[in-house]
Design brief:
mainly alpha, flat, 78% helix
């Protein structure tokens, strides 16, 4: 055979295979070739026919493998879920199954008296210890999760064995059983510390808070119970100081709260007030300090928000406990507790700033403490005060907050000041019901005056600032104070004439034909006084607008004057007597002419300003 012919055949075969591979790759990647690719011989000599499998891409297409399916975008999350189910949930279900199976076996053995009470407890204790020791072998080989699961089984068996020794078989006294359970709790906490395992610390806390329930005899032992709970809370606090295990605080607080509520429902009475308040205050102090001294968790973790949650729940939980206990005597005294808590949280906020490594690190906790302090002040006002004094208290609080915010440049205090102001205005308009006996010099007018003064302070403060939000708030306050002033003056007019008209009613005294005429004259005088009051107020606003060169105030004056014009033309014409009607129109006309004259004289140089604006726009 000609050697050159064999080499040519090999080249053709190799070229065909390469072409087929390229085509498969293009198909797999969805790449369309610019032009059909054909297998051409590299040498233009006419070779003899060969038996080699030389095919064009079109002939090779049937052998192309199917297009691979697209990989799901969430394959990573699916894998993580599968891994978590396999390594965590199945493990826990398996532990529960083993415990249930062992429980059934032991129950069967106990029912048949195969093992005596002492033997049963001994088996339980030895089994629990053996499982704890056995779990260390798995931890040494790197199976930490499985090792901790076995430790959970062992700890549970130890607690149940001691419970059986005391409650079921009465083999040991309560004091010994408590020491044994406390030893299990302490040993678990030591393991958590040495092995740097937060889950073991959680096991220790769960077991520690379960101990009083397992050893309960139904007797009231408040001092022993809450002293033990305080020791557990202090232990949890020590752990979170040394380790970044902030979630333990939530677990410890939940256990403390549940035991406290259970004891309170079962045993509390008035004679235990001082002692109970003392323990409640101790628990509050522990968890109030905890956010300040707890070790910083890694940023972005869920445990990073634990201090905020704990501070909020602890504050309101403690105050609710105090309020419920003192409500049996005098709930008004709890206002002093609220003010004391406000001072405490102001102090804690300062401590948070002082202990923080950077201002950003303490900002959220500091703001929360400040919010709690102001919240307790706001709550104390309606608890201690009554009726309109609550409204005035909120107005005073808003003024103080506004002044402090201006001094320390705090936007949060501004927000709280506005909130207290809204509460005061809402109560003034919707709830307060004043019993007025004399005009002007009464509690209602004084309350409205305080509200108007605070709104004026907010408006003045907002007008000094450059940001748009503050200016908008100032404008709203100006409108609100004008509306409150008009409402207050109108109410005084209404009450003055209401007292005069009440004496003319038939039920007030024997009926007299002249009473109806006097009643009508009083009603006409009241309506005329309304028009006069609104005209005068509109004129005052217009004068202030000219004096301060404020278009915003002038527009309010124009709106009020327009409303008064409508009342005069639509109502006064038909209802008022001729004399009042003449005076109304003359006064209104004189007021309108005076305002028109001021605008025509262009004292504010509005036309020049308009021409300059048009010129600048044209340029």
């Amino acid at each position: 055979m000609d050697p050159s012919g064999s080499e040519l055949q090999e080249l053709r075969k190799l070229l065909g295979e390469l072409t087929a591979r390229v085509f498969r790759i293009e198909r797999a990647l969805n790449i369309e070739p610019d032009r059909p690719v054909e297998a051409r011989p590299a040498i233009q000599a006419a070779p003899p026919p060969v038996a080699a499998d030389i095919r064009s891409p079109a002939q090779i297409r049937p052998d192309i493998p199917p297009k691979p399916a697209k990989i799901p975008s969430r394959i990573g999350s699916s894998t993580d879920l599968e891994s978590r189910i396999g390594s965590h949930w199945l493990n826990r279900i398996g532990i529960a199954a083993v415990l249930i199976g062992v429980s059934y076996f032991l129950k069967f053995a106990f029912d048949n008296n195969w093992i005596g009470p002492a033997g049963r407890v001994t088996i339980g204790l030895l089994a629990g210890i053996a499982i704890m020791v056995w779990s260390e072998r798995f931890r040494g080989r790197g199976y930490r999760i499985f090792s901790y699961s076995l430790k959970a089984v062992g700890i549970g068996i130890l607690y149940l064995s001691v419970y059986a020794a005391f409650q079921v078989y009465s083999l040991v006294p309560g004091g010994v059983a408590f020491i044994m359970m406390f030893a299990v709790t302490a040993a678990t906490a030591v393991m958590a510390w040495t092995q740097d395992a937060e889950i073991l610390a959680a096991f220790a806390l769960v077991g520690g808070f379960t101990t009083p329930l397992l050893l309960s005899t139904g007797q009231n032992r408040e001092v022993a119970l809450f002293s033990y709970v305080a020791i557990l809370d202090l232990g949890a606090l020590a752990l979170v100081i040394l380790k970044p295990w902030r979630r333990l605080l939530v677990l410890s607080y939940a256990g403390t709260l549940l035991l406290y509520i259970g004891w309170y429902i079962s045993f509390y009475d008035r004679s235990q007030l001082r002692l109970t308040v003392g323990f409640a205050t101790l628990f509050f102090a522990i968890f109030a300090v905890a956010p300040l001294v707890a070790r910083q968790a890694e940023k972005g973790k869920l445990s990073d928000s634990v201090p905020l949650f704990l501070a909020l729940v602890n504050a309101f939980g403690y105050f609710l406990q105090i309020y419920i206990m003192f409500e049996q005597f005098d709930a008004r005294d709890t206002a002093w507790f609220a003010l004391a808590l406000s001072a405490v949280y102001i102090f804690l906020g300062r401590q948070a700033r002082a202990r923080a490594a950077s201002p950003e690190a303490s900002r959220t906790v500091d703001l929360l403490h400040l919010a709690l302090a102001i919240g307790f002040i706001t709550v104390a006002i309606p608890i201690r005060l009554d009726a309109h004094w609550i409204t005035m208290g909120w107005f005073v609080e808003a003024a103080v907050l506004l002044w402090v915010a201006d001094r320390v440049h705090s936007e949060l205090l501004n927000v709280f000041a506005v909130g207290a102001l809204v509460l005061g205005v809402g109560r003034l308009l919707l709830i307060d019901n004043f019993d007025v006996t004399r005009p002007i010099f009464n509690t209602r007018f004084a309350t409205y005056a305080v509200a108007i003064a605070v709104l004026g302070a907010v408006a003045w403060y907002g007008s000094r600032r450059k940001d748009e939000t503050a200016r908008t708030a100032a404008a709203i306050c100006v409108v609100a104070l004008n509306l409150l002033a008009l409402r207050s003056l109108s109410l005084e007019v209404a009450d003055y004439y209401a007292r005069a008209m009440a004496n003319l009613r038939p039920e007030a005294r024997p009926w007299n034909p002249n009473d109806w005429m006097e009643w009508r004259h009083a009603k006409i005088a009241r309506d005329f006084t309304y028009s006069t009051l609104w005209m005068a107020y509109g004129a005052m606003l217009m004068m202030i607008g000219f004096w301060r060169r404020s278009a915003f105030v002038r527009w309010q004056a124009l709106a009020l004057i327009a409303f008064t014009i409508g009342k005069v033309f639509l109502y006064d014409v038909s209802e008022l007597d001729r004399g009042y009607r003449i005076v109304s129109f003359i006064v209104l006309g004189a007021l309108l002419l005076a305002i028109s004259f001021v605008y025509q004289r262009d004292w504010l140089q509005l036309s020049n300003r308009k021409n300059s604006e048009e010129g600048s726009a044209g340029a």
